[in-house]
Structures are given as C-alpha cells and as structure tokens.
Amino acid sequence: MARIGIIGGSGFYSLLSDAEQVEVETEYGRPSSEVSIGSISGIEVAFLARHGLKHTLPPHKVPCKANIEALAQLGVERIISTSAVGSLKASYKPGELALFDQFVNTTHGRDDTFFHGPKVVHVSLAEPYCPEMRTIASRHGFDHDSGTVVVVDGPRFSTKAESRRYSAYADMINMTQYPEVALAREKGICYLGIGMVTDYDAGLEGDPDVKPVSYDEVGRMFSSNVERLKSLISTLAHEIPERRSCKCKDSLIGAEVKA
C-alpha cells in the first residue's frame, strides 16, 4: 500500500524506475493515467501523470475527481503535487521552486466536490495545504516557503490586464491546482503543492524586455530544473512520518449538515 501519492504536471513524467503500472477504475471514470507504484528513497509511492503520460489532457479536461479517488483507493494519505506556474511578482523568478500556502480560484464549471447530495458537506479550506508537510518541506531549500497561487481555466495564457489584476492578490498563476487540492481535503488526504516557476506570465510590468510566456519556454524551464525537483521529492518522501499529526484527516468531522 502506498501512503504517499505524487501527482506530476508538465514535464514531470519519469520519477520511478521498475514501477508496476496499475489500472484503477472509479465511479467518476478513469484517472488521467495508469498509476505507477514503485519506491523512492526506499518508500513506496504512487505516481500519477496529471495530463496523461503523453500530455494529451488540457487543464480544463483533467479528471480531478477520478485522480483523487484512484489515489484514495490505493491507500494514499498524503499527496505531493508538482505544477508549472507563472510568476506574477518580480520576486518569484523563473527557475525557482515555491511552496503554496493559499490559492484563489477563478475557474468556472469544474466539478469540484464529491458531495452533490443528499449528503451535504462544507469542508474548511482556510489552510488548504497541509501545514505538517509544508513545515517539513520548508527545511529543504525551496526558494519560497509560501505563496498564493491564482487558478485560471486556461488553456490560454493571460492578457496583460488579467495578469495585472491577479498580481494584486496572488504571487503565481496556474491552471490545475483547483479543484485538485479541494478534492483531496474532502477525502481527508494531506496535500502539498509545489510550484516550479517557469515564466513571468504576460510579462513583467515596467520591464519591456520581459516577454509574455510561451509554452516552449515553460517546457524548457521545467526540463532544466526537473532533476532538482525530483531530488527534493525524494528527500521529502523519506522524511514524511507514517503517523499524521495534522488535522487534514479529520476534514469531515463537523462538516456534514445534520437534518
């Protein structure tokens, strides 16, 4: 049984060697890919490619409910999520790694809950990212120990006006953190979000030499830094304790509406 699940985003498709490929069926359909079960740092983990093994799923088509349900069925209690993010602030530079501590959702129409009735549940997301896992991760050389990520629908990139608006309340921009993190909380699964800064979104205001993002640039930046990210994940997998001391596992306690 794998206690730790890893969801990899853009450019992050090879992590485990000699892994067993497991097909998982859920009531929400099939997940993005087969789940690879293998070991990293001597710890058994489950790896799932968010966009499919050949990156065939755009952000708004990622089957988040099936992905989270599949990992839950495999016994996963903690998820380490990696994502490419654009920077909205000069202090978040391309090539840097950041831990998310908050998100702002601007997506529309995504199926973002397991509870559509008759059972009604309101989970708390005041702290959406597991504080225990963030504390452990912050000891290991991340460039930013915190940061707010705004989640947009995509698949297009932002206009300059949109980017300017988002920068008023967020540090980074991404297309897939929501509803993934919220669904994990509904399942009582701890979730650590790691962003690889790949670009400056629609450019950097006040600096005409910083050009708007292109996907080629995102891919190149992610590829050049992915080994560092893999090394950090290996360290985290080894240091995450078996017993959870956070409250993520208790997310449904007191959250259900009682008639």
Structural key phrases:
23% helix; ten-stranded mixed β-sheet; globular; Rossmann fold; alpha/beta
Please report which band the strand proportion falls in: under 5%, 5-15%, 15-25%, 25-35%, 35-45% or over 45%: 15-25%
The overall strand count is 10
Largest sheet: 10 strands, mixed
Given the structure, what is the number of helices? 5
In total, the number of domains comes to 1
By CATH reckoning, the class would read Alpha Beta
> What is the oligomeric state here?
single chain
CATH superfamily: Nucleoside phosphorylase domain
Description:
- The N and C termini lie far apart (37 Å).
- A hairpin with a 2-residue loop joins strand 3 (35-40) and strand 4 (43-49).
- Strands 1, 2, 3, 4, 5, 6, 7, 8, 9 and 10 form a 10-stranded mixed beta sheet that branches.
- The model has no long low-confidence stretch (mean pLDDT 90).
- The chain has one domain (4-250): 3-Layer(aba) Sandwich (Rossmann fold).
- By secondary structure, it is an alpha/beta fold.
- The chain contains 5 helices and 10 strands.
- Helix content is 23%, strand content 21%.
Itemize the secondary structure elements and their pairings.
Elements: E1 4-8, E2 20-22, E3 35-40, E4 43-49, H1 64-73, E5 78-87, E6 97-99, E7 102-105, H2 131-137, E8 148-151, H3 160-166, E9 172-174, H4 177-186, E10 190-199, H5 215-239
Parallel strand pairs: 1-4, 1-5, 5-10, 7-8, 8-9
Antiparallel strand pairs: 2-3, 3-4, 5-9, 6-10
Helix pairs in contact: 1-4
Explain briefly what this protein structure is:
With 259 residues, this protein is α/β, with parallel strands linked by helices. The chain has one domain (4-250): Nucleoside phosphorylase domain (Rossmann fold).
